[in-house]
UniProtKB/TrEMBL annotation:
Protein source organism: Silicimonas algicola
Entries under InterPro entries matching the protein: DUF4253
Domain DUF4253 as annotated: residue spans: 171-274
Protein name: Uncharacterized protein DUF4253
Length: 274
């Protein structure tokens, strides 16, 4: 396993917002990023990071990049076919099925319920799915179709908060500016889908434009605290377009839907790669 390149700080789940504010005050040169359960994060790092690129080199390339020109030269590819992965299925889908892409937004639109039904049928036919797993999947389908599904994780901090235990960890990344912390996050799908210097430069643009600071990370998302919430629908759609060009599948604000309208005014954004 490659060594995790930043220290981890254990924080109490019950006072996580206060603990996060305290860390920023005590260590103004560090960017605390909530990573969830320490054992889960360590296992994910060990499984996904074979080569750790030097952050200084990534940052140098990101600073040299004209990110506006990079995005201006590119258009979105056609939407991919629906895919449902079995790993972490219940948690992932119970979290994500409530975001329905608006057709006017240039993000890949996927019929999650249909894909989930197909997956349940495949599991049942192959005999691979346990009774409990199939029951959980069917309950998710029923809840969403009936419109009574709760929004289980309303923001990115909730998503990384362990369901058990009273602690979670934050990675403390020493940086000159908040956006630079993205160069250290190399354990997620985003590190495969997007050129790392471009992704870091996009985070610089989000910070400069909207004051978007990275506060959470997992293998499938990056969460941002937004100091200057997006005010115009045109700006929101440009955010969506840019992250989609970096391979992201969705962007959520503090609402259930994925669209330009619903990230306008959002105090937190989470960008998904899955």
């Amino acid at each position: 396993m490659l060594e995790i390149p930043f220290p981890l700080e254990r924080l109490p789940v019950a006072q996580i917002e206060t603990a996060l504010s305290r860390l920023r005050a005590e260590r103004p040169a560090s960017q605390p990023i909530l990573l969830g359960d320490v054992d889960v994060f360590s296992a994910e790092w060990a499984e996904t990071v074979d080569i750790f690129e030097e952050p200084a080199a990534i940052l140098s390339a990101a600073r040299a990049l004209d990110i506006d020109a990079w995005f201006a030269e590119r258009t979105l590819p056609p939407p991919p076919r629906p895919v449902v992965r079995r790993e972490g299925l219940a948690r992932r889908l119970s979290t994500r099925l409530f975001a329905r892409p608006d057709p006017v937004v240039p993000l890949p639109s996927r019929r999650r319920i249909d894909a989930l039904k197909d997956h349940a049928r495949d599991l049942e036919a192959s005999g691979e799915g346990s009774v409990e797993e199939l029951a959980e999947i069917r309950e998710i389908i029923r809840a969403v179709e009936c419109g009574d599904a709760p929004m289980m994780f309303p923001d990115p901090i909730d998503y990384v908060t362990p369901r058990r235990g009273d602690e979670m960890v934050a990675g403390l990344v020493d940086t000159a500016e908040p956006w630079e912390s993205m160069a250290w996050l190399q354990h997620g799908t985003y590190a495969v889908c997007a050129p790392r210097a471009v992704l870091v430069a996009c985070c610089r643009w989000l910070w400069d434009t909207h004051g978007a600071r990275i506060i959470t990370a997992s293998t499938d998302h990056i969460g941002f605290q937004v100091e200057r919430p997006i005010a115009r629908i045109e700006d929101a759609r440009e955010v969506l377009r840019r992250v989609a060009l970096l391979g992201a599948s969705e962007v959520n604000g503090d609402t259930r839907h994925t669209s330009g309208e619903t990230i306008v005014g959002a105090a937190r954004l989470w960008v998904w790669w899955d």
